[in-house]
Every structure is written in C-alpha cells, then in structure tokens.
Amino acid sequence: MSNRKIAPVSDNNDKFLTYTELTRKYNIAMENDFYFEAMFIVYAMMEDRLRSYLYYLGCLKSKSSHKFDNSDVQSVIETLARKHLPKKERDNLDISGISGKRNVITATLKWALAGYEGCDGDYLAAVKAVYEDKLDIAECLDMLKKSAEWCEYRNELIHAMMNKNIESLYSELSDKAVEGMKIARYFDDSMVKKLKKKNEIRKAIGLD
Q1: In angstroms, rounded to a whole number, what is the distance separating the alpha carbons of residues 168 and 197?
Q2: Cα–Cα distance between 15 and 10 in angstroms, integer?
Q3: Is it the case that residue 158 has pLDDT exceeding 80?
Q4: Is the torsion defined by CA of 185, 187, 193, 196 positive or negative?
C-alpha cells in the first residue's frame, strides 16, 4: 500500500473519537445545508461498516488488514459467489472498494436465503448459526441493494458535477444524505453489532 497521507486510527478509543466527531460534523452539515459534506461523511461510514462486517465474518485476519487476507474464507466465499451471484458481481470480490464489500456479504446472505445448501466445515456452520439466530436475511439484502442504488446516485452526483442542471443537482441532496445515514446505521446496528456480539464466527475458525 502506498504511503499514507493521513494517519489511521491507532486504537478503539481513537476510532470512537473519529466516529463521534464525524457524526457531529454530519449533523452540523445537515443543519446548515452542507449536503455535499454530509454525503461524503455518509459514504465513508457506510463503507467502514461494511468493512467491519467483513472483519467479523472472518474475511480479515486483523482490524489493520487492508485486503481479503484469509485465504481459507476467501475460497469459501468465492464458491458461494459462483453459486449465488450474477457474473458481474461474482467477478468483483475486491474488498478494497465498497461494491466488492457488498458483493462478498451478499453472496453469504443469498446462500442463507437459499437454505444454506452445502453447509460443510466449521466456518459455514458458524456463519449459519449466527445468521439464523441474529439476522433478518431478506432485510439485510434489501438494505445492501439500497446501498448500491444510493452509491450510484452518489457517483453520478460527483462525476461531471459542473455539467449538471443546478436545480436537478440539488433536488434530492437532502433526502439522499438522510437516506444514506439510515443505511449506514442499519449496517452498524442490525448487521455489524449482531456479528460482533460473542464474536462466534471468528472464534469458530481460530481468529480470536
């Protein structure tokens, strides 16, 4: 990875302070119609929560990992993706980007929705146990779809902004900033925290 221009968080307390400050900045931005800043913060939170989900799913060996570095889990995920994702999505399991993160998670959720076929080995058994007990699979999939649609809007918003009709440019900004935060909070409250509690998946494969 290239040399960082901005220092990463050093520990959980540092991460908490960053989240608290950026949430405060989001609220200030919304109160003062600074919707571009709000969208920027929401996107970062959304991607961070998906990365955290992947950590508790066992895709990352440590919280400092920057790529899919658990080859055993990666092999399993690739198999699930081949069975449950369309080609475009299964060809992008690169978790350095938000779409790849979504695709990895979606593959596991669609496997769950299909009835946990081929649930072999300690890893998939642990995922199945947690998913059955803690997640609303259909709702999670719906929120991931909404995230993808939100990101499409965000990408269109950013690219060639100077060539956009100004009225159209501003027409949905406020609503989209609110919607994005709702999605990010859902990822945190209804997905990440559910996997984090008791940390069952990581423990099942000897990561914690």
Answers
A1: 43
A2: 7
A3: yes
A4: negative
The whole-angstrom separation of Cα 159 and Cα 157 is 6
The Cα–Cα gap between 72 and 21 comes to: 37
| Residue 184: burial class (beta carbons within 10 Å; 0-12, 13-18, 19+) | buried
104/145 Cα distance (integer angstroms):
13
According to the 3-state scheme, what is the secondary structure of 5-62? CCCCCCCHHHHHHHHHHHHHHHHHHHHCCCHHHHHHHHHHHHHHHHHHHHHHCCCCCC
**What confidence tens digit (pLDDT) does each residue in 16-56 have?**
999 999 999 999 999 999 999 999 999 999 999 999 999 99
**Is the entire prediction scored with pTM above 0.85?**
yes
Residues in the chain: 208
DSSP labels, 104-130? HHHHHHHHHHTT-TT--HHHHHHHHHH
Q: E strand or H helix at 175, and its extent?
A: helix 173-186
Residue with tokens 């501003």, as numbered in its chain: 170
Written as one letter, the residue type at 180 is: G
- Please enumerate in sequence order all residues whose Cβ is within 8 A of that of 155, keeping only pairs 6 or more positions apart, or say none: none
